[in-house]
Amino acid sequence: YFDPSKTIAEDTLQQLLRFLRSTPSSVNVQPNHFYVLATPEGKKQLADNLGERFQDNAEKILNASHTIILTTRADLPDSHLEAVFAKERADGRFPDPSKQQLWESMTRNFLDLRNYGYKDLNHWMEKQTYMAVGLTMMAAAELGVDATPLEGFDPTSVDKAFKIRESGHTTTVLLALGYPDPQKVYTTPISRFDPDQLFTFI
Ligand SMILES: Cc1cc2nc3c(=O)[nH]c(=O)nc-3n(C[C@H](O)[C@H](O)[C@H](O)COP(=O)(O)O)c2cc1C
Questions:
Q1: Hey, what's the torsion of the CAs at 87, 93, 95, 98, to 10 degrees?
Q2: pLDDT higher than threshold 90 for residue 180
Q3: Is the alpha carbon torsion for 137, 11, 169, 120 positive or negative?
Q4: How many domains does the chain have?
Q5: Closest C-alpha to ligand 1, atom 10
Q6: Residue 7 pLDDT
Q7: Would you say the CB of residue 75 lies under 6 angstroms from ligand 1?
Q8: Can you give the CATH number for the domain in which 178 is found?
Q9: Pocket residue to mutate for ligand 1, from 46, 56, 148, most atoms within 8 A of Cβ
Q10: Is residue 4 one of the residues assigned to a domain?
Q11: Which of 45, 54, 117, 157 is a plausible cystine mate for 113, CB 3.0–4.6 Å?
Q12: Percent of the chain with pLDDT over 70
């Protein structure tokens, strides 16, 4: 439960977004686009379009200071790969151009494997998005900001409301950010399996 009267300070938000931008992805594929909802109108647009089954999450989004829609590419056209490589070249990722070339052919091989071998290109891209959401939750905690990941939404409905498919992306997960409502903070313990059920030391 978020306190609707509290807003994340601009410099803290910018720090979080810098962090989100810096999260890594496999072969630097960077399959994401992020919608940062900072206004009451933006948050309402999301809250109103979660889908019938997911009304419980509306209040969380409306009371959060900010909510981020993490979207992932629905496919991986060559134009996207070319844009990744062009940016790497512009940023001087590999000072030696032959290394960049080698990297590009390794990347293409790996993507062919995902596409035609494992046939999990889309699922694999969404895994990258989950890493970004998890790492950003940790960064938020470091900055004293509460974060709730939300899977309770209908992606078709959210995509439609924000015209997300038009850009070649689709909604993967939401991240509500803000400060807890002091009246509604949980006092019961967190419940997780014991370490002996979780860890095997070999
Ligand atoms: C990927 C993910 C999606 C989640 N989606 C929702 C959601 O849509 N709505 C919600 O209220 N909580 C959501 N949660 C919160 C979980 O229900 C919660 O973390 C879990 O029950 C454990 O509770 P705890 O975090 O308080 O220990 C989500 C958590 C994760 C990690």
A1: -70
A2: yes
A3: negative
A4: 1
A5: 150
A6: 98
A7: no
A8: 3.40.109.10
A9: 148
A10: no
A11: 117
A12: 100
Distance from the alpha carbon of residue 120 to the mean position of ligand 1, in angstroms? 25
The backbone region for 36, taken as left when phi is positive above 0, alpha when psi lies in -120 to 50, beta otherwise, is beta
* Token pair belonging to 163: 């015209």
Ligand 1 atom closest to 133 (CA): 1
Is there an atom of ligand 1 within 6 Å of 190 CB? yes
Q: How far is the CA of 41 from the centre of ligand 1 (A)?
A: 25
**Mutual orientation of helices 10-22 and 121-142 as an angle, nearest 10°?**
140
Q: Which domain holds residue 156?
A: 10-76+121-198
Render pLDDT for 79-111 as a digit per residue (tens, 0 to 9). 999 999 999 999 999 999 999 999 999 999 999
Nearest-angstrom CA–CA distance, 29 and 32:
9
Q: Is 61 in the pocket of ligand 1 (CB under 6 A)?
A: no
